[in-house]
Amino acid sequence: xxxxxxEGPYFGDYGGxxxxxxxxxxxxxxxxxxxxxxxxxxxxxxxQALSRDYTGRPSLLTExxxxxxxxxxxxxxARIFLKRExxxxxxxxxINNVLGQALLAxxxxxxxxxxxxxxxxxxxxxxxxxxxxxxxxxxxxxGADTRRQALNVARMRLLGAExxxxxxxxxxxxxxxxxxxxxxxxxxxxxxxxxGTVAGPHPFPEMVRYFHQVIGEEAREQILELTGRLxxxxxxxxxGGSNAxxxxxxxxxxxxxxxxxxxxxxxxxxxxxxxxxxxxxxxxVLHGARSYLMQDADGQTVDSHSISAxxxxxxxxxxxxxxxxxxxxxxxxxxxxxxxxxxxxLCRTEGIIPAIESSHALAGAARLSASWGAEGADKTxxxxxxxxxxxxxxxxxxxxxxxxxxxDAPEQDESAAQAAEAPxxxxxx
Amino acid sequence: xxxxDAIDRAKAEGRRAFIGYLPACYPDLAxxxxxxxxxxxxxxxxxEIGAPYSDxxxxxxxxxxxxxxxxxxxxxxxxxxxxxxxxxxxxxxAVVVMIYYNLIDRMGAEEFARSLAEAGGAxxxxxxxxxxxxxxxxxATEKYGLDRIFLAAPTSSPQRxxxxxxxxxxxxxxxxxxxxxxxxxxxxxxxxxxxxxTKAAGAERVCVGLGVSTREHVEEIGRYADGVIVGxxxxxxxxxxxxxxxxxxxxxxxxxxS
Lengths: 429, 258
Fold this sequence. Notes:
The structure holds 2 protein chains of 2 kinds. Chain A is globular. Chain A contains 16 helices and 14 strands. Chain A has 2 domains: about 25-55 and about 95-205, Rossmann fold (3-Layer(aba) Sandwich); about 55-90 and about 215-420, Rossmann fold (3-Layer(aba) Sandwich), CATH 3.40.50. In chain A, α3 crosses α13, α4 packs across α9 and α5 (about 120-135) runs parallel beside α7. In chain A, strands 3-4-14-9-10-13 form a 6-stranded mixed beta sheet, sandwiched between helices. Chain A is α/β, with parallel strands linked by helices. By secondary structure, chain B is α/β, with parallel strands linked by helices. Chain B has a domain at about 5-150 and about 220-250: TIM Barrel, CATH 3.20.20.70. Chain B has 11 helices and 9 strands. Chain B has helices at about 5-10, 30-40, 60-70, 75-90, 100-105, 110-120, 135-145, 160-165, 190-200, 215-220, 230-255, and strands at about 15-25, 45-50, 95-100, 125, 145-150, 150, 170-175, 205-210, 225-230. A 9-stranded parallel beta sheet of chain B has the order 5-4-3-2-1-9-8-7-6. In chain B, β4 (about 125), α7 and β5 form a beta-alpha-beta unit. The longest helix of chain B is centred in the last third of the chain and has 22 residues, at about 230-255. Classes of the chains: A alpha/beta, B alpha/beta. Chains A and B meet through β2, α1, α8 and β11 of A and α3, α5 and β6 of B.
């Protein structure tokens, strides 16, 4: 079997359905609806039409030569190409999956969509799809995230969605998923839970990947057309891992392509403040799937940390865990500081403001290119620019001390302030 | 004592088993043991000791608040076994734990089962473990003779109910409604269907929980189920009035006081 054709419920030792019995019937119904839709040309046509006319697919592939020169420190460094999911309607890759799931929800006769969101991108995409299809929409968002992503909260409300801040636990993405699951257990009759990443119980990891595979398929075709050959490396950020799995799937069976996933390294993986589940986690079950999990010696989930709300998750999709164990994909952490350097470099050299999530992938590509030195001359790197940075302007401006009254503050003050907002509990084992 | 014996003993006395839930180490280890003793002394046949967990997706606000507080006070998994040991020593009730699976997984199913059996525990209720994923847990509970209590839901198909009935030991936990733990005004009529369906699928004993908080609920469910499970109402009583209030409420729910 090839990597590309791998289906759920299990990816090696990972995946499955670690869920309350109450939700199994809904997962079975979803799986059956998904299988039928995949085989139905009418569904394919509906999904493709929406992707083209509403999302704006195919998304561009943009070469970024000034960024490439800056990060390699040489004129003959590796060429870097960005897969521009940031140019999709709603500003990120998340819309691909949401439109697919909303179409499935309609087929199942469900009239209400619920979602969790971290950075707000998935919540905005779900609110958008609900508006488009005339469905009710409730989005659960960690209280800490509603504060650091206030602009996206307003966007969701403008689109007619109800946003419910979750004030339990670390008040971030993991806690928003818990609350969405509690809603779903009680509302499954009329409600579809639009899970936003390739995590969760079967069929979500396989299904969400399916709706994002278009990223990799387009990217492969585009790079072949532009350069006449496959890239030497592919880079994407990994929180739950949906944009990454979408891009990777275009290249998983191409042995010549090295694939890199970049996890949020937060303050550094030597500290307790990071979100590098593959790098430092161990196998466990959370939110319906077995995967790598940041947990303490008792199995309690450890709170994650990242400057990027969208990567601030203590586990990762089960297919990524499998690809890591299989050695097909290399996963490495990128710290907040490295990612913000790449963020600034792309802004200044190319006039593109990336999402802070995607900046982890940029930083990874920069690291690769620098490590190649002169050997990079004939090489190309494909980077998933999964989202645009409009939502992150305030966070970035604070990081770079561009806000009024910040002139005297040392840079560390910001991370200290965020530490106070999301206190760490438990000890990584 | 195993849960089947506790349920059958109640039946022999002409009543239905009463099952009470309390979290371990809420508000602290000693008080949680006292509260469980009060449960038993006022008529509980089976005591469920909940393991505080960071991500309790099946729990409503009352239990979440209690278990979050226990975790904040530094709850460790070893204390779960200590609570089970003390409650087993001081009561005649069958003692089971209610535990989310990652806490078992982290220790290893076999090591967890061994520790639970050593502490005198009768078995475990696993709210986020379905038989489909339970191979390790089945083997471990088999080895140490522990009850394993899976959940049956109003939406479970007949095929699933067969598997749940076949793989459970002790009793099946019938979920009375679609939702999380917490008080409800009325018991959903789905509960009776769950019990009927699960028994038709071969289960000998089915107890019903979720949303049960009054003597009326207990009596109503007692007409068709082998036992009645109360959680959030007892935890709220413990929060507001300590172990004594747990005893008072238990006496009321079991019909020992009126």
